[in-house]
Amino acid sequence: MGTLLRGGRVLDPATGFDGVADVRLDGGKVAAVGTDLAAPPGTVVIDVSGLVVGPGFVDLHSHVHSIAGQRLQAMDGVTTALDLEAGLMPIERAYAEAAAAGRPLNYGFSASWGTARAQVLAGIMPDAQIDSGLDVLGNPRWQRSSSPKELAAWLSLLEGELAGGALGIGILMGYAPLTEPAEFLAVAQLAARAGAPTFTHVRELIEVDPATPIDGSEEIIAAAGETGAAMHHCHVNSTSGHHVERVLKSLDRARREGSRVTVEAYPYGAGSTAIGAAFLEPDRLRMKGLRASSVLMLESGERIADEARLRELRGLDPGAPCILEFLDERDPRENALLRQALAFPDSIVASDAMPVYWPDGSQESTKWPLPPRGTTHPRTAGTFSKALRLMVREAGVWTWLEAFRRCSYLPARVLDDVAPAARGKGRLDVGADADLVVLDPAKITDTATYTDSTRPSVGVRHLFVGGVPVISQGEMLVDAYPGSALRGEPR
What we know:
Urease, subunit C, domain 1, 2 domains, 9-stranded mixed β-sheet, 21 strands, Metal-dep_hydrolase_composite, Dihydroorotase, Metal_Hydrolase, hydrolase activity, acting on carbon-nitrogen (but not peptide) bonds, Amidohydro_3
C-alpha cells in the first residue's frame, strides 16, 4: 500500500528543486514527484499543504543504540542514525543484535579504532555486550603508542571489520592524544586502500597543548592529503572551541587544494563524554581555559566543585557520563563562534547523540512518551531542530533547501563510496529511498535542555523510513520498527 503526500513544499537538495508538489511513495522508494498525481487504489493520501517535505536527516554521529534514543531522534527528523565516530565491535554482532531488537530508524556502524586498540594494547576483550570506543574512554591502558607488532595486530582487526560491513573507521584520537602520529597515518593508509572513510575526534590543538605531538586538525588535513583517504572531521565546534576560526580556515585551504576532508558541527556549546577522558584531566582543562566547574555529571546532576573532586570522580568511575561546557551560548562572541562552525561552507549537521540513562542503570525503554527521570545530552533530542531554528528561521543564514542539503544530502554523500546503498538517501527524486520528513517550518524547534534533556522536539508532523510511517500527525507510532541496516561494501 503506497502513500501520496499531497501539496507540500517539496525540497530535493540533490536536484535543487524547491516547489509545491505531490510525492508518491511505493515499495520503499519515491515513485513519483509532480503536480496533481493520481492516487492508485489503496493509496493513503495525506494533505501536507503548508508543510515542508524533504529527505529525512542522515546523522553520521549518533551513539544511540536503543529504541528509546532513536525515537527521540525520529522526533528531530532523523531517518538514519549512524555510529561512525566511535563505532561498534564486533561489527557482525552489532548489526545482528540491532536487527533482532528492531529499530525505528536505519542504522549502521564504523569499525572501532578504540576497541581494536584496547584489545591489543590492554587485553580488553568484548564481553556479552557490544563494545564501542566509548566503552573504554576512561581506561588509560590503551592510550599509549603501539609497538610495530601491536600496530599490525589492531590494524588487522580494523581491516577485518571493514570486510564485515563496517562503514569506515571511527577514530577517537582525542582520547589518546599523545600517541605517535605515524599510527594515525597508518589508519588513513588502510582506509584509502579499502575505499572507506574515517571519522575522527581529533587530538588537541597546538594552541591548547603546545606539547601535543601534532596539531589535531592539521593532522587530519595532512593525512588526507598524503593518502588520498576520505577523512571526516567530527564536531569541529567542540574540538576547536575558541580557535574554530583558525581551524576552519585551514580546512578550507586543504579542501581547495584537493584534500577529501569533510566537517561536521552541532549547535550546542557543551559536549558529552566520559569523566575519565584524557582531555578532562585538570591540567588539560586549564589549557583550554576551562575549569572543573565546567563539568557536570550527567546522571547525578552534580556540577564539579573543584579539581580535587574532579580527580576523585575520574578515579572512582572513569566511564561515568558527563557534560563539558566549552562555549558559553549566552555570550554573543562565543555564540558567534558556534554559528560560524555551522555556517562554514558544506559543514554537515551531526548530533553526537548520547544514550539515554535512567536511575536504575538501564538505557532502554519501549514506552512512549519516555519514562520520567531519563537523562542524556539535549543534542540527542534536538540537534537538527535547533539547527533549523537557529540557521533558517532566526539568522536566515540557510534557505530551507540549504538546510536539507546539510542535514540530509551531504552526510549521505560521505558514504557513497563505501556503501552504494547510501546513494538513495539524502535526496527526494524518483527512485530515492522513501526516507522522508514532513515538518512545520513555522513550528520546528528543540525543547530539550541540559536539565530536562529528554523532551522531544516539536514540529515534525510525519516521518517515513523505507516508506513506513514512524510519526503520523506529530504522534509516534510505537509499533513501527522499519529501520534497516546500512552496511559497507569496501572495494
